[in-house]
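Example record for the data management plan.
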Amino acid sequence: MHELHPGVQDMACDTFLKIAQKCRRKFVILQVGEAMPFIDELCLNLRAIISDLEPGQVHVFYEAVACMVSAQADTPTRDALLIKLMEWPNQMWCDLLAQAKATSGESLKDDKTMNQLKKIITTNDRVCTALGHPYVVQLGNIFMDLLNIYKACSEMINTAVQTGNQYVLQSSGVRALRAVKKETLKLLETFIEKSEDNDLVLTKFVPPLLDPVLVDYFQSAPDARDPEVLSLFTCLINKLQGQMSSEVPRVFEAVFKCSLDMISKNFEEYPEHRALLFNLLRAMNQHCFGALLTQQANFTLIIESIKWAFKHQERNVAETGLATLLELMTNLQKCDANMVNSFYQAYYLGLLQDCFSVLTDTLHKPGFKLQAMILAHLFLSVESGVISAPLWPQDGSVQAASNPAFLRSHLLQMFSSFFPNLTQPQLSGLIAGMFEHCKDHAGFKQHLRDFLVQLKEFGDSTDLYADERKEEADLRAKDLRTRQEAIPGLINPHARNDDMMGD
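Corresponding structural encoding:
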């Protein structure tokens, strides 16, 4: 790590990390001939060891040592090792904060100061990644200071945007401020993901972070909004699940509507926000569905957002939208009959038309599996009588004996206008087959494939079998891995998940 020849230090740090990951238990116990465990020796000489390393290499080193610390089974000893490991970064952190306090925050306008803060926060993130939940000891020491720095950075960025020109966000000063904010959000997300105590996260960490993060996101200019905020709250909801239900309306109001305004003008701008926003919506729907039903206007916005998502040409966004819709309809089955009827009366025909629209669009072939599952669910809801309220307009313009009869007539009319190359008997047979196969997922998928093949403009149909091919490939890969693991030395040690050395 002291060799200045290009590439040697990188190799040394990477190798050190791999050894630490595979043999971490060996470093926390006293070996024969040692005066102290190797981890204690590392912490004592830490500053000398990393004196010649670049910041990125220092982060790798701290992650490696944190791996070793995580192997210490005795909690007080492990906590003491962590405090010793973070002694130098914490000292620099305290010095920078004292300087900021002495200068009434003026020192935070210095790019060098902000870069130092960013490096310290990144070091904490790498330690948290390796250590997991025990990192709570260190986070407790710096958490409130982190939030205060976050708020200070937010205020300075907003002031610069208001007083500067259109290019102010590209200036080095604002970029340094945003980098500190992003690293802070990343550190908090890492800890929440690694935490093993949901009650601790909910009571100690969630309440203080809501105001600085949500208010800043809502009030910031669109170009200054950090997509990591969306990722953080997605992580929070996935982790705490129903325990976050009481906060979901607040999160929704602060981040959802303003983010939707940013991305709904076209399919290209703000790609990070675009993907992360729909991940957040999916998490809310999965774990806090009841909280989304509190306001009808918000629920309509959610449905329109889901439609926007699954019409998207970006594959991961489209699949997230389809998965969210399917999960939403599944959640709806647990609600009372009045709620089910109200939902389908308001949205059924629109969802059906939009699903068929993407199904028959060649740009959305990869989503065929989920499209088929959604359509089968919609047909089954009518065929099984789950929807008892009439789906046709109640203004007297349409008369129908039942929902199945109305839906057959409605689809025949819709398909006749969409697909003039198909005859009435063909369309009637296709519609009848959808009702007939809606209880059999495999049969329904095959029927949809036949339907799409009959649409001469649809072209190559090989993508319609993508999920079957993926399942076969996964099975073959799993079988190969099993056979390779049975032969000692065949798999590279770095590719194995287990430790090379036990206690």
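Summary line stored alongside the record: The radius of gyration is 28 Å.
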